[in-house]
Amino acid sequence: MTDVKDKLIANNETINWIPETIGKGRFGEWLRNVQDWSISRDRYWGTPLNIWECECGHRHSIGSIAELKSMSDNCPDDIELHKPYIDAVTIKCPKCGGQMKRTKEVIDCWFDSGAMPFAQWHYPFENKEIFDDNFPADFISEALDQTRGWFYSLLAISTLIFDRAPYKNVIVLGLVQDENGQKMSKSKGNAVDPFDALKKHGADAIRWYFYSNSAPWLPNRFYDAAVTEGQRTFMGTLWNTYAFFVLYANIDNFDAAKHKLDESKMRVLDKWIISKLNTLTKVVDEYLGDYKITEAARALNSFVDELSNWYVRLSRERFWSSELTDDKTAAYMTLYTVLVTLSKLCAPMTPFMSESIYRNLVCSINPAAPESVHLCDYPVFDESKIDKPLEDKMEEVGEIVTLGRACRNAAAIKNRQPLSRMFVGAENELPEFYRDIILSELNIKSLEFTSEVGKYINYSFKPQLKTLGPKLGKSIGELKNLLAAIDGKAAMAELDATGYLKVKLSDGEKQIAKEDLLIERAKVDGFIADSDHGITVVLDTTLNEELIEEGYVREVISKLQTMRKEAGFEVMDNIAVFAVCDAMLCGIIAKNKSQIMHDTLAKSIELVPSLPEETGYAKDWSINGTPCSLSVKKL
Ligand SMILES: [Zn+2]
Ligand SMILES: [Zn+2]
């Protein structure tokens, strides 16, 4: 091997190592220090070494059964090449005519593994075409410990025989550890039986865990809860979305084969998810082409999250309409297209679930379609369907909603309590369509984009002692007092404009840089703000009587809907409602009776001093702090 060291190094450079560092580092280092390889072993079991020796000192290496037979007069016709049979075969010494016997050694088993590319095809004795088609391999994968094992034996033999690398791409896998990052071992009792795990979680969930958890070359901690989590978030969400489609498509007898995805009938939200789908198809294909498996899995995961928690949630009511309108058809065809494409995109990662979704959605209505998702072509993205500005706007909507929810959380105002207004500071203002989504998601009446969100945020400042202490010495105490009394908004504006703050200390004027200050956001009364990714969201938290009343109404409706579910009523059941509460809440319920009845399918709401007997399902609640007993009865 030392003779071909340069060739080994040159051939290694043609291999795409994932990660690159193993090829250049650990494996490259091994090659630069390569030692000769003694391929014989003193064992019984193994491939018998093909060397015959004569007492005269001559040695002969046999290259085929035919050669063996031609040199031997005791080789059986159906020679079994393993021990002990092969050791009975002797050949005639070409030098002295004496009897040559096979040497007793076997071949290092790593040689067997490295001979795999041609040995598996019995090449060069047959299958030349198959071998040429399959060599070098596009891709191999094994664990990190194989740098001195299989990764090396393959390259060593291939370099000696063909002077080229036997594989183009190699993914190096990290080892699987237990929950605490310990190596699994039988003696420690922390090893997982793969068949138990498969039985418990299913093959898809286990595959998905390894694909999505971490880069392949990093160690994976394997434990039940980790697998279950991925199963719930990705597979569960995808399956529920699929089940949602199937449920309504069955109710409507919807046949996707009879419709087309008609752009003129699609809503903005439909176009958005189709755009996202094509972007997803593009990036997943690129990632997989680059062997970036975790990235591909994570792209699929976040798409499925947006599909379920944004597209389906905001489109749900369209599936509830009783007529099969153009709008409902557009929603069906959009979701159908997304689900079928997703089943193909996910097929390499969750093959069983993908197959099940594909066969039900496609094969059941199209007998001409390939009978398995695994026989389909991998999806190809359509550039004309990608609308980047639309995706960007919706992303901004998502960010604003997330910030708005964080504001509500921080102010401890739940989403059911309507608020009057919000302000957004962002580089790009959004058109009305997108504002409406934000307002409806956040339950707020109005939204204004403004460059002056700073008005609603105050700041407090403290000196960064570690850096300012040495610079200012004794004056640091004076600065601290000065900062405590400073006008936070004005100071922040000055910092944003100039990068520093001018202060007058007793030993002269100083410029304090932003990084020398500890800056904290402080509340302005009546407002709550949060910002991220260059977007600032401010909610006006002032509640007037009207908003408070609306908050009560929403709360009552929500409680009644919870009770409908708990009582096991069907979605379309009509109910009768009784309520016992104080005068204030009674007044609000009476005033908003028709809305409450409409939203809860109630035929009557009676305000009573105490719940009647035979009242149906009853429960005591605290409605925004006001005690209230409610009962619902199926009519
Ligand atoms: Zn064998
Ligand atoms: Zn001899």
From TrEMBL:
Annotated GO biological process: isoleucyl-tRNA aminoacylation
Pfam families named among the record's database cross-references: Anticodon_1, DUF5915, tRNA-synt_1
Keywords recorded for this protein, A-Z: Aminoacyl-tRNA synthetase, ATP-binding, Ligase, Nucleotide-binding, Protein biosynthesis
Catalytic activity: tRNA(Ile) + L-isoleucine + ATP = L-isoleucyl-tRNA(Ile) + AMP + diphosphate
Stretches assigned to the Methionyl/Valyl/Leucyl/Isoleucyl-tRNA synthetase anticodon-binding domain: 270-420
Family matches, as InterPro entries: aa-tRNA-synth_Ia, Anticodon_Ile_ABEc, Ile-tRNA-ligase_type2, M/V/L/I-tRNA-synth_anticd-bd, Rossmann-like_a/b/a_fold, tRNAsynth_Ia_anticodon-bd
Enzyme class name: ligase
Enzyme Commission number(s): 6.1.1.5
MF terms in GO: ATP binding; isoleucine-tRNA ligase activity; tRNA binding
Domain Aminoacyl-tRNA synthetase class Ia: start-end pairs: 1-212
PANTHER family: ISOLEUCINE--TRNA LIGASE, CYTOPLASMIC, SOLEUCYL-TRNA SYNTHETASE
Name of the molecule in the record: Isoleucine--tRNA ligase
Native source species: bioreactor metagenome
